[in-house]
Amino acid sequence: MDITWRRIEEQDFPLLRMWLRQPHVKRWWNHETTAEAVARDFGPAARGEEPSEDLLVFLEGRPVGLVQRSRLRDYPEYLAELAAIVPVPDGAMTIDYLIGDPRRTGQGIGTAVIRSVIMRTWAEHPAAPCVLVPVVAANRPSWRALERAGLSRVGDGNLEPDNPVDDHTHYLYRIDRPGTGG
Question: Coiled coil: which residue ranges (predicted)?
Fold first, then answer.
């Protein structure tokens, strides 16, 4: 699979709005989908005003999804929530992801995207010792994709879910930089 990406740009917001409205995305992301809400929440990263990276993912040159990547230290409150459940090394990164087109789910694309973003994280963030990913326990397809991509479940605990219908139980997955013995 030829997976590439670039930073989200404001011209991508209509596509993002469409993906966020898809039932399989809406179920887990539970995000407002008005033009104003998407601009409010994704605009700062698109303009480089936010330390996170919102990346539009392409498969064979066609947009298929979104990856959000960030250093946990850039979000101290979130870091503290995760550190209450598992040890979080200095410099740890986190990701979130979605496949936007429902016809592209269940084909291993999510796993391939996760693998790809992890490999690029090692190259683009040389100080990152690991990637730590919380996922709501009920989202089996998401945590199975993490497992297939090589991440290991390292803990579970209560975090605020994106969707208020979900239980607070989350699994935390981790992958260490190769060669670090993490």
Answer: none
Number of structural domains the chain divides into: 1
How far apart are alpha carbons 135 and 28 in whole angstroms?
10
pLDDT at residue 103 in the model: 82
Q: How many angstroms separate the CA atoms of 165 and 146, rounded?
A: 23
CATH number where 116 lies: 3.40.630.30
The DSSP annotation for 111-162 comes to: HHHHHHHHHHHHHH-TT--EEEEEEETT-HHHHHHHHHTT-EEEEEEE---S
Look at the pTM and tell me if it is higher than 0.85: yes
CA distances, 102 to each of 30, 38, 87, 109, 129 (Å): 16, 20, 35, 11, 33
Q: What is the mean pLDDT of each run of 10 residues along the chain (182 residues)?
A: 91 95 83 90 92 93 94 95 95 94 84 94 96 93 93 93 81 92 58
Report the DSSP beta bridge partners of residue 152.
Answer: 174
